[in-house]
Structures are given as structure tokens and as C-alpha cells.
Amino acid sequence: MRVRITPGSRLRGSLAVPGDKSIAHRWLILATTAQDSSHLLGVPASLDIRSTASCLARLAPKGRPGLEAWSGNGAATPHGHGSTWNAQVGGAPDALLEVEGEGWPGLAEAAENLDCGNSGTAMRLLAGVTAAAPFRSVLTGDESLATRPMERVAEPLRAMGATVATTDGHAPIVVHGGALSGITYATPVPTAQVKSAVLVAGLRAEGPTTVREPAPTRDHTEVALAALGVPIERDGTSVTIEPFQHRGFEGRVPGDPSSAAFLVAAAALTGSELTITGVGLNPTRTRFLDVMARMGVRTEARVDRTELGEPVGDLWVAPCEGVRATRVSEDELPLVVDEVPILAMMATHAAGDTWFLDAGELRVKESDRLAALARGIADLGGAGGVEGDDLVVAGAGLTGGTAYAGGDHRIAMAFVVAALAAGAPVEVDDVGVADVSFPGFVPALVALGASIEVLG
């Protein structure tokens, strides 16, 4: 999809964003491996989550009906609440997903490969699931996913006793699972995906499993496990669990704060007031608000409930009078790694240079995001570049032009939002890829008052 953005609009109103992908991946896995049924609301219709649901349907015969319906490989409409299913505009937030679980013994060898699509989270977490299952599984994905590093998850799972083979360090991954032993593992780089894969496998290991990280990362797995009664100890950047068979649960997936970040930025760049409702406010996911505060953006978060241990509430954005430059340190970057694209594109409109230090992990995301950002900023008349593993963005503004998202959902959305404050109209190609995490992204901005025309 190619769109044309005309700057100058003010946004207004309130809206909810799709459910949090990071949480939904984990809850789907925990629902599938639970003893008894689970009832989930707010599961997003994003392509990544549909990939996870599809893979789990192949592994869990009893849970297959609900999971296949959600993945799009079964019935067209998940049952519950009379909701109309429409993946193109984010699905139905009140559609009920029921997953019948028989515990870990209920998993069975899939008749075909487990296609994780474009989702690195799906592949790494499912590697942890299949490592604990006594059969052979093959995890595959699309061309982009096949370029991402997978030895980082294979190594600790081998240490636990699984046989895990990668393809020159990448997907496909072949896992022969079975009896596991708990380990103590120090992750070389901060990565919540590897931490979560090891912890999930640890639920079926003999003895305790400990993961130590060099820096804090998002903690959705630990929060959910604690809420489900798993014996767990957390000490700084170290977490230890004991083997445990959890039971079914219910909850509504909070709105995705990483998706909300694009709307906060859109409000800031257009001097608008905006409220985002029902969003997840887990402190390990809202560090971008601290960065934005240094850039001159005023927000207020109001927690009003918890869902399976996750804080949820509304996020209010005040009109912004201008964006300031800032510096994101190497210690802070792991907690804003998914928001770097939108923070960097905001910084094109700041007064001064903004630095993102030690951002090499962005090279192995859905695209080389460092290169993609530098290229897109130049294409839109801005100034920025990559120095080693650091990204520097000069706040000279954007003069307009055409940019290509290159198949990366966060790059696509970041370009569109930055264009709202450009000096002239902007065209962005491949915006349809936003459906990976934020189905209905462009219609949401248009509903808030943005001037965006779909060209084809």
C-alpha cells in the first residue's frame, strides 16, 4: 500500500490500539500448555500473532479449533460476543478466543513445518516450547526471518538437553525435544525472547532454571508466570523458576504500548491532545515515555486495572510546543529497542542532534533498521547517519519526498508519523506491512484527523 501524507493536520479524540503482541504471544503459549481451558479477549489480529496461533494449532490437537480460527486457517469468525471479525481493521476487541489445554502432555508432533511467518518472537518462544516436547519440530519463516540470529536461543536449549540444529545460525530450526534439566544461563545480549524461551522450557525441566541478563528487558513472561502460580524468584536482572504445570486462565490482552508510541509521537509532532485507552503500562515497556519526556512531550498514565498481573490504563498526551534533541544511552536502549524507529523519526524535527548509542541490535530486526532509518531520513530531506553501532539524527526537519518501508512494519509507521510534520507532502510505499503489528494503522490516524490518501 502506498500513501500520501499532507502535513498540517491537528489530531483530536481518543482511541484504543490493538492488543500487545509481546503479551499475546506469551499468553497463547501459556493457554495452549495449560491444564484446562483459557478465555482470552483482546488478542490482536496482527500477522505475527496469527502465525503463533497457527503454529500452536499444529502442536495442540485439543486447542486446534479456537487457535485455527484465530490464525485464519479455520473458521472465518472466532465465536463469542457476536463480534464481527475483520483482520484489516484490527479484529474485534471483544471477540472471545477459547483455548482448550491438556497441559504439556497434550502437545503432539506437527504433521508439517511450523511456519512462524515474519515473527522472531514466535520462532524463539516456540523453540522453547518444542524443546520441552518429546518429538521433532521444524520451525521455518519468511525470507526476512531467515536472516535473523537463532543460535542465541539454540545454545541455552541445547544446554538444557534438547537437540537443536540451526541453518548456519539461522532458520530453519530443527528441534528434537524431550527430557530437560534446569540450568543457570547468562544471556550475552539483553533479549527478552531468549530469556522467555528458556523460562518456558524450564517449566518442564528437572530442577530450577535461572536466566541472568546484562541489562533489564521486558518482563511479560515473568509477570504471567507469577500470576499463574509458578514458583518464581526475581532479583535484579536475574529470574529463577521451578518446574510447574499451570492451569487455565482468563484475561484481556492490554493495548500495545509500542503501537501507542506512534500515536503519542503523532500527537506531539502535530501539537495535538490525544487519549489512548486501555493500553498496557508495564514499566519495562513504557521507557519510551521517559525518552519522549526529555524531548518535550508531556504525558500522563493512569492505571485502572491489572490483567494477569499486567497494569492497564489510559495514556493522555498533552499538546507539545516543540521537540528537543536527546541522547539514548546503551543501558537504556534495550528497553526502547522497538521504539527507536519512531523516536528517531521524531528526532528529525528536534532542535539539535539526537544519539542512539550501541544500537547494533537494530541491524537484526525485521530489517536492518539502522540502515533503513538513515536511508529514509535522507529520502525525506532530513539529515542523519550511522557511526559504528550508533545512530545520530540531526534535527533539521524533513522537506518532503518519497520513502520505502522495505517490508518493516515499524519503519513504515515511523515514516508516516514523521511525515505529519514535514515541510511538504510525503509518499510512503509498502505501508500495508503495518498489519504485522498494528492492523488498521492508517485508518486510525485518519479517524483522528490526519490527512492521508491511499494511492494504491
Summarize the structure.
The chain is an alpha/beta fold. Helix content is 29%, strand content 23%. Helix 1 packs parallel to helix 2 and helix 2 (47-59) runs antiparallel to helix 3 (64-71).
Q: Supply the CATH architecture of the largest domain.
A: Alpha-beta prism
Looking at how many chains there are and whether they match, the oligomeric state comes to single chain
- Which consecutive residue ranges, at least 5 long each, have pLDDT under 50? 74-91
Strand count, sense and closure of the main sheet? Answer: 4 strands, mixed
Strand order of the largest sheet: 23-24-1-25
Taken as a percent bin, the fraction of beta residues is 15-25%
- Cα separation of the termini: 5 Å
Radius of gyration: 21 Å
Helix content: 25-40%
Taken together, the total number of domains comes to 2
The level 1 CATH classification of the largest domain is: Alpha Beta
Shape: globular
Specify the CATH homologous superfamily of the largest domain: Enolpyruvate transferase domain
Total number of β-strand segments? 25
CATH-assigned fold name of the largest domain: UDP-n-acetylglucosamine1-carboxyvinyl-transferase, Chain
What average pLDDT do the residues reach? 93
Helix count from the secondary structure assignment: 13
User: By helix and strand content, what is the structural category?
Assistant: alpha/beta
